[in-house]
Amino acid sequence: ILSLFSGVILGFSLRSYKMSYREVKYFSFPGELLMRMLQMLVLPLIVSSLVTGIAALDSKASGKMGVRAVVYYMSTTIIAVLIGIIIVVIIHPGKGTKENMHREGKIVQVTAADAFLDLIRNMFPPNLVEACFKQFKTNYEKRMFKVNIPSNDTSTVASIISNVSEAMETLTQMKEEIVPVPGSVNGVNALGLVVFSISFGLVIGSMKEQGQALKDFFDSLNEAIMRLVALIMWYAPLGILFLIAGKIVEMEDMGVIGGQLAMYTVTVIIGLLIHAVIVLPLLYFLITRKNPWVFIGGLIQALVTALGTSS
């Protein structure tokens, strides 16, 4: 938190120097290093922690826990989406900023069915190595198709069949249609890696003594990754300071950008507060009939770490 405020102060202090693009990039280099370090450990941390945790459970406990986790995840996601929609409709965070904004690139229309199927496809990546840096995404392209038209459809082909024999039963015309085709986008397929890690952990846990060697390996791997994360956390304050300061120095017009982002920031914070302070404690109370704030009090250290690392 101290690094965050220090970065804001340093960034505003350096704006008057009008740094060039190259100078800003050099200045932001310590922050870039922090992001690279964290991204470097994301994959091994996800895989090792999930495999270790699932393998340590017995099959019955992990099965029940998995079902509950899926139900909880789906329920809270739906609630969060509804909260977000309601808050956006009430606040209108983008109102009044359209005249100051310009579009870049092209807008691609995606159907709900294709988006859902992409989600399912990404759960089962055909190549685990590729899943570390690429996700499946449906693209769209225009293709021409031949369509047979009945000869008795006079409204469509009357002008065409005027000189054609009446014995001809069908005519053919070319039709353009936008069709889905396989594609990909850069980015970690975290969902596929999570599904594989959970499945792998369940199998290792069911192997008893035969899987003990793999259990020990992933336990050691997880411990090593956690120690690396602890080392990076010592560097995090310095990296955060230069990351925030660099972004502030890089902004061209603080007034315009601040006006465009202020309402979006307020909208996000209000939504997070409603979900974290009202919805989740209420769900905990309804399910367990216990005081949620006592439970949350035991998670203070984890919550502070999550806040500091934005995770």
From TrEMBL:
SUPFAM superfamilies: Proton glutamate symport protein. Keywords: Amino-acid transport, Cell membrane, Glycoprotein, Membrane, Metal-binding, Potassium, Sodium, Symport, Transmembrane, Transmembrane helix, Transport. The keyword Transport applies. It catalyses: D-aspartate(out) + K(+)(in) + 3 Na(+)(out) + H(+)(out) = D-aspartate(in) + K(+)(out) + 3 Na(+)(in) + H(+)(in); K(+)(in) + L-aspartate(out) + 3 Na(+)(out) + H(+)(out) = K(+)(out) + L-aspartate(in) + 3 Na(+)(in) + H(+)(in); K(+)(in) + L-glutamate(out) + 3 Na(+)(out) + H(+)(out) = K(+)(out) + L-glutamate(in) + 3 Na(+)(in) + H(+)(in). InterPro entries: DAACS, Na-dicarboxylate_symporter, Na-dicarboxylate_symporter_CS, Na:dicarbo_symporter_sf. It comes from the Eukaryota. The chain crosses the membrane at residues 40-57, 69-91, 188-207, 228-249, 261-286, 293-310. It is a multi-pass membrane protein. Belongs to the dicarboxylate/amino acid:cation symporter (DAACS) (TC 2.A.23) family. PANTHER family: EXCITATORY AMINO ACID TRANSPORTER 1, SODIUM/DICARBOXYLATE SYMPORTER-RELATED. This is Amino acid transporter. It comes from Dromas ardeola. The gene is Slc1a3_1.
